[in-house]
Design brief:
Bound molecules: histidyl-adenosine monophosphate
Structural class: alpha+beta
Oligomer: single chain
Largest sheet: 8 strands, mixed
Number of helices: 16
Number of strands: 16
Distance between the termini: 57 Å
Shape: elongated
């Protein structure tokens, strides 16, 4: 017997309901419009990939790889020649890099600018703003080492947050974590600082110390947070080239009017970053829900996939978090366009006829709706009225038989009987008709008013 829990969405997941569609659609359309304005092409990659795509790209010592990946297997493993296990993608960059190489994008004109949108999966501890399936909008610029490109990526995110009406609530935390030249010196300094304090670190950080001391700066445990405050700062170890790169990124952001804060501990939870790292942080984030977006430069990642060294930079928004912020700040969201036409049907024969009519009207590009569960004229007209529909097409038994329909103008409470074959032309005319012209027509034709 099934328990009540079987009918709940899995822990850390949620449904997106029709009443939220305007919000989700507004986000998507805004991002699509801005991304294409900045020259990004849309890419979609599979929801799951071979484990190496993530373990290699994200880093063995990251939280995601160590404890947050979901594995996917065939429920019945008959094919021994098939790869037996995959990982549900916990983030988008690694899959996009795999696709960049697999689809030969190295020979496309560089940089290649790609954006993606879809769900990601992390076995995080669920809480508000932290889900096991969350939506992600990611942007990657591949094949460009210029520091102004880092600033352009940040500016794109900044613009989108402005479009969505929440930019005032957000600040960009920014840092540079150096490159293969200067990072080893910084790692050494970190090791020297933390080694004598090893006993005070959490168990995970103790094991991370030898393998990747930078990860210690990403730990959220209270004791580790305290030690982090006095740790050596990465900016003091940057080589000349990294320092120059960072200077230009910051200067460009100043020119573009992006509000940022230098945050020397921002190393991010993924290992692939070099030089610039940044996050879009909610300024008065009392719940410490985390950032609404984040990213950075990752010049060494494609090389890790066995390709030639290719510089790249990108970031991603956590869509659920941006939308929660929009709701919290009551950011204005345009309503979905109301349907133009409501088809009212009375009786079985009329119901069947109305389905055909809906298909025909939809084919003609009208935005049509119906409520087949409701049978009374009054109830259906009330729904049409509430939905802000401009015309109701009413089909009763008689109309279904003689091929006519009643066309009712919902704003004016006027109606006329017309042939179903004339409906499309008539509706096109009526829906396009400007107000004064309609007034004149009514005066001339003397349309009957109920
Ligand atoms: P990330 O910071 O791990 O970066 O994730 C991007 C965004 O996804 C975060 O800033 C956050 O808003 C959201 N997010 C992360 N985990 C959750 C969760 N459990 N529930 C809800 N939202 C979440 C990346 O994944 C990089 N691939 C971004 C990037 C693109 N870097 C370069 N290019």
């Amino acid at each position: 017997m099934s328990s009540k829990n079987d009918w709940r969405a899995p822990r850390g997941t949620h449904d997106i309901l029709p009443q939220d569609e305007s919000l989700w659609r507004y986000f998507y359309e805004t991002v699509e419009w801005r991304a294409s304005g900045f020259g990004f092409g849309r890419i979609e990659t599979p929801l799951f990939e071979a484990p190496e795509v993530f373990t290699r790209a994200l880093g063995e010592t990251t939280d995601i790889v160590q404890k947050e990946m979901f594995e996917v297997r065939r429920a019945t493993a008959e094919d021994s020649d098939e790869t037996s296990s995959y990982i549900l993608r916990p983030e988008g960059t690694a899959g996009v890099m795999r696709a960049y190489l697999e689809n030969g994008m190295q020979v496309w004109p560089q940089p290649v600018k790609l954006w993606q949108y879809g769900p990601m999966f992390r076995a995080d501890r669920p809480q508000k703003g932290r889900y096991r399936q969350f939506w992600y909008a990611g942007f990657e610029v591949i094949g460009d080492a210029d520091p102004t490109t880092d600033a352009m990526a940040i500016f794109l995110g900044w613009q989108i947050l402005g479009d969505l009406g929440v930019r005032d609530a957000v600040v960009v935390d920014i840092n540079s974590i150096g490159d293969a030249v200067c990072r080893p010196k910084y790692k050494k300094a970190l090791l020297e600082y933390y080694e004598p304090l090893k006993d005070k670190l959490c168990a995970t950080c103790q094991t991370r110390l030898d393998k990747n001391p930078l990860r210690l700066l990403d730990c959220k445990e209270e004791d580790c947070e305290k030690l982090k405050k006095h740790a050596p700062q990465v900016v003091d170890f940057l080589c000349q080239n990294c320092r120059e790169h960072f200077r230009i990124v910051l200067e460009t952001l100043d020119e573009l009017g992006v509000r940022y804060e230098l945050t020397s501990t921002l190393i991010r939870g993924l290992d692939y970053y070099t030089r610039t790292t940044f996050e879009f942080r909610i300024e008065d984030d009392e719940r410490r829900q985390g950032s609404v977006g984040g990213g950075g430069r990752y010049d060494g990642l494609l090389e890790q996939f066995g390709a030639k060294s290719t510089p790249a930079v990108g970031f991603a928004f956590g869509v659920d978090r941006v939308l929660e912020l929009m709701q919290e700040k009551r950011a204005p969201v345009p309503p979905l366009p109301a349907p133009d036409i409501f088809v009212v049907q009375l009786g079985d024969r009329a119901k069947r006829a109305s389905f055909n009519l809906i298909a025909q009207l939809t084919d003609e590009g009208f935005n049509v709706t119906i409520q087949p569960g409701k049978d009374s004229l009054k109830a259906q007209l009330r729904l049409a009225d509430r939905g802000g529909v401009r015309f109701a097409v009413i089909i009763g038994q008689r109309e279904a038989l003689d091929g006519t329909a009643i066309l009712r103008n919902m704003n004016e409470n006027t109606q006329e009987t017309v042939d179903q074959s004339d409906l499309v032309d008539l509706l096109k005319k009526r829906l396009a008709e400007p107000f004064e012209q309609r007034e004149r027509r009514i005066a001339e034709e003397g349309e009957d008013v109920n």
